[in-house]
Amino acid sequence: MANLTVRSRVRRQLPTSPWLFAAPGLLVTGVFVLYPFVSTLVNSFTDRRTLIPGRFVGLANYRELLHDDMFWTGLRNSTLYVLGVVPALVILPLLLALLVQKNIPGITFFRSAFYTPVVASIVVVGLIWVWLLDERGLVNSLLEAVGAGRVGFLSDQWLLLLSAMAVTVWKGLGYYMIIYLAALANVPRELHEAAAVDGAGAVRRFVTVTVPAVRSTMVLVAALASVSAFKVFSEVYLMAGPAGGPAGEDTTLVMLVQRTGTGLTGRVGYASALSVVVFVVTVGLMLLVLRADRRDEA
Amino acid sequence: MRISRRTFAAVAAAALFLPLSACGSGDDGGGSTDASGKIEGDITFQTWNLRANFKPYFEGLVSGFEKKYPGTHVKWIDQPAEGYADKISADAAGGTLPDVVNVSPDLVAPLAKAGLALDLDKTAAKYKPEYLEGAWASHQIPGLSGTYAFPWYLNTGPMFYNKSLFKKAGLDPEQPPKTYDDLFTDALQMAQQSHGKVATLANVPTIEDFGRYGAELMNKEGTGFAFNDAKGVELLTKYKELYDAKALDPQALTATPESTGKKFLTQAVAMNPGSALDLGNFKKNAPGLYKNIGITDQITSTGHVNMYVMGVMVNSRTKHTAASVAFAHYVTDAENQMSFAKQVAIFPSTAGSLDDPYFTKEDGTDETRVRIAAAKSLKNAVNYTPVLFSEQMKTALRNEVAKALQGKESPKAALDNAVKASDQLLKQQG
């Protein structure tokens, strides 16, 4: 009888149990993800400022975006960042992974060395690169020593953007290399051996065996790299300065969000509209990459 | 558990519209504007990056106040320099702004507009005669009546120059430039002689440079900016010449005060503004430079050098108005400012303090020479940066100046655009 009571109570509680188990996670997601997201969305339709409550202004912020030169500069730079960084972060870590995959003496040291930039603080990395690329830094001293003359890595808008891209690629290589190493471990050795027997050289084996085998990983890397490249902030902020390079020409969209929406006079409403655009483009990029993958599979 | 559609709709609506509640008119939370009550209660005092170097001074200050007014307790907190405005804005928006806050005039302006800074003309007018007139006025906001912070310490500084670089360029190291014309001529010669390798200046002109050159920064009513006048355009045109000749460092367009300081330290630029505080830095980190350091007055066309003002603001929503006002006054009174000035190269804003022998008597050292010269110039110095000139406006000006220097816009067009953008931002600030 007692057993029956317990069993029926358990049965009665079953429908609520999943919600109770999920509650902590849902609460955290609700407070730290959903609420800020909805808040940003709502704010984007107001003229709210940091200390002044806003009024509903409809699509005014979005209309203003279209006429804001700095928004287009930000969109251009963030897009260029994706175009410059993503191919490098898809291909180079794969080559690096192939290199360190081999079991040769001392290879562990190189694996660790390639991964070190990933764990280094971006601020430290940024400052080191600023010192290296300064007008009187190591790179320019070397260029001058070989008679090439100084290059304005940190004063020319395009070179600055390229330099920041180089830092992003350099810092991200190790991270994506680890992902590729895991994928490469699953590629059957027999496939390579069979291709080799058929007379395929190293390049041919790479194109016909390795790439197809890790294609889904490449898509994953492309998606991850696209999203983080479009949302780039630290590298450009550290190298180009808070103003975003000469005349703000290196400003990225996230830098613009930070510059517009923070501080005591921050335009929270307008910065929220910018954030919504960043969100939409980021989701669009993800969908684009995944769609391209599906089309290739078909 | 089944969630009914109605419940789901209610939750979704709450999630959607809850944020809007934050957009409603802010509840003022109700502090008193009457500072005449009994001085008691627990208050919080926030400083701006001062704990690392002056912890004993502030601990003494706090315990002195608590001893003077039994029944009070002051909790001292310090925030790092980086992101200080963001920290204040987060606290202000979240209703957690400390009772007494270390501010600069540009920080106090938005707080006063949002009704978060106590009007001292109403609550503490009796203390006004204790301070230099200009210092007291530095926390007054165009468009608002009242004064919103006690003036605290002032700072100004000379121009440092590298005598060795001057000599190498064929310039007289004992005759540094005294006027803008001299400065531009010397800078061009320096660039020519060093084949563009040594620049004289490393900063693009800021709003205070335009003010010091004689441009009108704002209209009389304080409702719009005016630095695109003939003087402003003239200054920017001169800077363009310097930039083209590499007399202005090529990295000036992306420079920060820290990076230009470093360039001067490494002898990559010949002149840099600074304060008496920098001498110790030169001595310690660049002995080679220190041996060749030259010190000259700030260059100005108006007869008034630029000064920086720090203030101490009282949160209008404090629950202990009397104690907060008393503490803010205590921190900034003549005795405590003088005591602080003897710890670090700053200058008191209290009337008569600058006549103290500490600021008038030479002892043969460079530090004292700089201190005395600065104290003398402070008596008629001006805080050129308009209190309403926000960070966003500074960025707008900087970007337009950069476009002019790069030749993408004429100096006139660049300044017109900067004024237009700043006016627009001013309007949006309300």
From TrEMBL, chain A:
It is a multi-pass membrane protein. The chain crosses the membrane at residues 20-38, 80-100, 112-132, 158-185, 206-230, 268-290. This is ABC transporter permease. Residues 75-289 form the ABC transmembrane type-1 domain. GO terms for cellular component: plasma membrane. PROSITE patterns: ABC_TM1. Its main location: membrane. It is found in: Cell membrane.
From TrEMBL, chain B:
It comes from the Bacteria. Residues 1-24 form the signal peptide. InterPro entries: Bact_solute-bd_prot1 (IPR050490), SBP (IPR006059). Keywords: Cell membrane, Lipoprotein, Membrane, Palmitate, Signal. SUPFAM superfamilies: Periplasmic binding protein-like II. It holds the Pfam family SBP_bac_1. PANTHER family: ARABINOSE-BINDING PROTEIN-RELATED (PTHR43649), POLYGALACTURONAN_RHAMNOGALACTURONAN-BINDING PROTEIN YTCQ (PTHR43649:SF33). This is Solute-binding protein. It comes from Streptomyces brasiliensis.
